[in-house]
Design a protein that fits this description.
The complex is a heterodimer of chains A (387) and B (154). With 387 residues, chain A is of the alpha/beta class. Chain A is built from 15 helices and nine strands. By secondary structure, chain B is an alpha+beta fold. Chain B has two domains: 2-61, Arc Repressor Mutant, subunit A, CATH 1.10.10; 73-152, Glutaredoxin, CATH 3.40.30. The longest helix of chain B has 14 residues, at 2-15. The chains are: A alpha/beta (387), B alpha+beta (154).
Amino acid sequence: MSNKELKRADIIFSPYSVAPYEILKRTMKKDKEHVINELIESGLRGRGGAGFPTGIKWKLFAQEQESERYIICNADEGEPGTFKDRKLLVEVPRKVISGMAIASWACNAKNGIIYLRAEYKNLIPGLKKEIEIFNEYAKKFNLDFTVDIFCGAGAYVCGEETALIESMEGKRGEPRNKPPFPIKKGYLGKPTLVNNVETFATASMVCRYGASEYKSYGTDDQHGSKLFSVSGDSPKEGVHELELGMKISDFVEEYGDGDTKAVQIGGVAGFCIPRKDFDKTIIGEGNTTGGATMIFNSTRSMYNVLHNYLDFFAEESCGQCTPCRVGTQQLLKGIEAVKSGEKPESYLDDLIKLSKTMKITAKCGLGQSVTNSFTSIVKNFREEMIY
Amino acid sequence: MAEIAKIIQEKVERYGRKRNALIPILHGIVSEKNYVDNNDMVRVAKALDISAADVYGTASFYSFLESEEKGKFVIRVCKSITCEMKGKNKILKALEDELRIKLGETTYNKKFSLLQTNCIGLCDVGPAMLVNNEPYTHLTPEKIHDIISDYRNK
């Protein structure tokens, strides 16, 4: 895969050079199918972490027959190390709402809901004002679309779209069996389009610039630009918009503190990349991540890092399926036992096997992704797990 | 009592007498008195025509819907990795000293509760915490003293 140099992009946070609702107005003059095809053509993938092609999701949603249907903006960013959605909702909320409105128009949905995590409750007054402003425009454009805010109540797993829907229905945030996918049967059993905050904002930018220009950013595998939430041992913490396709080494050079030992890419559900693998591409073929990048320098104990992650997973596992509920706890106990000498070093290999079993057997992304950080840390920093 | 009935009624009017009204109702009760007790749950269950066990099941799932009595100001210190790296434990110690309670406890005058929470999306400006809904960032033990003093007077 070809790499690009680290290059800042200025698409998502650029000031409103063209008013976001102007983009909506212009888009609404086009053919709906054409707009959805442009989105497919742009190669935009979901920016929440799973990376499903956005245009295809919209297309499938638009094809549904039922008239009662919902558009949900997933603002439940609970992944440790991620804070880009908060910044988007504070700084460019109109791009987000405009993206939702374009989806509403293209896919004939009248109801939009922003699922905001409880931790961001203090953003509600600002968002409500923005929604009022949007309502004025919607009236002017004859667009029948309302946007509501639903406040979550503090559960990481609700970032998973079916758990999020369960939560909106007043239930425990336990992921559903899939299929059926929310596109067919989502909120209240009706077709539901769930996209991440950044995905909606980016979709509106794709409508502004057109697929071909957007595609000129990034590489053949990963198009466009992406927001990276940078935190940890970095003098430049914050949200940075970068063109996709750079090597990790370039990223570390720019954002590290000169003593970077490892980078956690994609939050705790992602991979921990050690120094020897820094020549890899930051977000490789096929997969995209939420863009959480946590940088660790050589003073950090990777055992403590992993312990913190596992503690998090054990607490946030919804408890519905056994592999995840028991697996997360056993991994946590397991590394503690190896550290204390209660279990031999080789026990780490058993734990890796357990985490891989979780990947196959857990019901949702939470349990399935534990092995990513677990295996990458245990394999690359084995000595730190033992001594 | 009367307030709780009013909250339930308001939300039922807005969302209908349906289970989707549940979390908004529970949020309403928590912002009124900082936790939802068993009696409240029974009342909510009646209003929505669902079982009290369902209400408890939902309420107990979410970390921001407390089902045990909490202080007027609930402090939630972020314990995720980057905040931990930046000195979360020192902040916690400063809070414990300032409030004279341990993690998980509530002050005798029911003014403050001290809790930990998972990532609150303030990793670039950590260590961070929430006091009710209000975020505080770049915390230091000195800042803790000032923040708590402010709240003591509220």
